[in-house]
Design goal:
By secondary structure, the protein is mainly alpha-helical. The protein has helices spanning 3-26, 31-48, 58-72, 76-93, 118-126, 131-143, 147-152, 182-195, 212-226, 234-247, 252-259, 264-268, 275-280; strands spanning 158-159, 164-167, 176-179. The protein has a three-stranded antiparallel beta sheet. A hairpin with an 8-residue loop joins strand 2 and strand 3.
Length: 296
C-alpha cells in the first residue's frame, strides 16, 4: 500500500476520533459514556483500516458487527453501545441525517436489580470505616444517588433550609431535587467540621472530586465487615433506597421524581423486587386449605 495513502488514513482516523471526543463532551455525555463510545468507535476504525473514511459505509458496519457476534460473542449491551457510537459519529460529527441500520438490535435483558434489606443496609453503614466513608455511603443510600451524581455534589448543593439535595445535571443532563434526611444532615455536618471540603462535598486527598474506584473499595470493605456476601455495588444502594421507599408506601410517582427517571416504567421495576408486595400476595393454593388436598 502507498505510504502517503496510509499516512493520510491515519490522519483522518485521528481527526475522526478527536472530533468524536469533542462532540461527546460538548453534548454533556457522562464521562463513562464518552469513554465507551470512544473505545467502540476506535475498535470499528481498527477493523476498517486502511479504508479511507469516505468509503466506509453500511457494508463495513454490518460486517464488523457480524464478526463481533460470531467471533467474540459480544453481549447485547456491547453491540448496542457499538452501534450507538457509530451512529453518534455519523449524525453529530458528520451531520448526516438520522441513521438506521438493518441490524438486529437485540433487546436489553431486563434483569431485576439486586436489593438489600433495611437491616443489611444498616449493617453496612455501621461497618463503614471512618467518618468520611460513612458519610459517603450514607449519602448514596439516603438520597438514592448514582455514583456520578454523588461525585459531582458540591457543598452548596446541600440545602438544609428546605431539607433537600440539589442534583445538578444528572443523567440526561437534568437537574432534580432529592430528599435530605435530618440524620444524614447531622452526619454531614460532623463530616464537614472534620474534613472541611473546599468545593466538592467529597474530595480526594489532593482536592477535586473523590474517586469512584475508592468508593467501590470502601463499600466492598464495609460489606466484608458487615458479613454481607451479596454482590453489592454503589448502585445497589440506590436500588435499595427506591425499594425501601416503595415498601414504606411512598407513591411510585414521587419515587420516580426522586430518582430522576424519565419514564415511570423504569421505576415500576421496583414493584417486582419489593418483598413487602410479595408477602401481601397470597397464592390461590392458600384458599384450598381445608379442602382435604393436604390430608394423607
Amino acid at each position: 500500500m502507498n505510504h502517503a495513502i496510509s499516512v493520510s488514513c491515519q490522519q483522518q482516523y485521528r481527526w475522526a476520533l478527536e472530533q468524536l471526543r469533542i462532540k461527546l463532551a460538548a453534548r454533556r455525555y457522562s464521562k463513562s459514556t464518552q469513554q465507551v463510545y470512544y473505545h467502540c468507535f476506535r475498535s470499528f476504525l481498527a477493523h476498517v483500516y486502511p479504508l479511507p473514511l469516505h468509503q466506509v459505509g453500511r457494508e463495513q458496519v454490518y460486517d464488523y458487527h457480524r464478526k463481533l457476534i460470531e467471533k467474540q460473542n459480544i453481549s447485547r449491551s456491547t453491540q448496542n453501545q457499538s452501534i450507538n457510537a457509530i451512529k453518534f459519529y455519523l449524525e453529530h460529527v458528520l451531520g448526516q441525517d438520522r441513521q438506521s441500520f438493518n441490524l438486529e438490535r437485540p433487546k436489553k435483558v431486563q434483569k431485576l436489580p439486586e436489593v438489600l434489606s433495611v437491616e443489611e443496609v444498616a449493617r453496612i453503614l455501621k461497618a463503614s470505616g471512618n467518618l468520611k466513608h460513612k458519610a459517603i455511603l450514607t449519602t448514596l443510600y439516603s438520597a438514592g444517588l448514582r455514583i456520578g451524581e454523588l461525585l459531582s455534589l458540591k457543598t452548596a448543593d446541600i440545602d438544609s433550609d428546605h431539607m433537600r439535595i440539589w442534583v445538578r445535571e444528572g443523567k440526561g443532563c437534568k437537574d432534580r431535587l432529592t430528599t435530605l434526611s435530618p440524620h444524614l444532615l447531622k452526619l454531614l455536618r460532623a463530616y464537614f467540621r472534620k474534613y472541611r471540603p473546599y468545593e466538592y462535598l467529597f474530595e480526594g486527598q489532593n482536592g477535586g472530586p473523590y474517586s469512584s474506584t475508592s468508593i467501590r473499595k470502601i463499600l466492598a470493605k464495609a460489606c466484608h465487615r458487615a458479613g454481607i456476601h451479596k454482590k453489592v455495588r454503589p448502585h445497589t444502594l440506590r436500588h435499595s433506597f427506591a425499594t425501601h421507599l416503595l415498601e414504606q408506601g411512598t407513591n411510585l410517582r414521587y419515587i420516580q421524581s426522586l430518582l430522576g427517571h424519565t419514564s415511570a416504567k423504569t421505576t415500576e421495576i421496583y414493584t417486582h423486587v419489593s418483598s413487602k408486595n410479595l408477602e401481601e400476595i397470597k397464592s390461590p393454593l392458600d384458599g384450598m386449605v381445608g379442602s382435604g388436598i393436604f390430608e394423607r
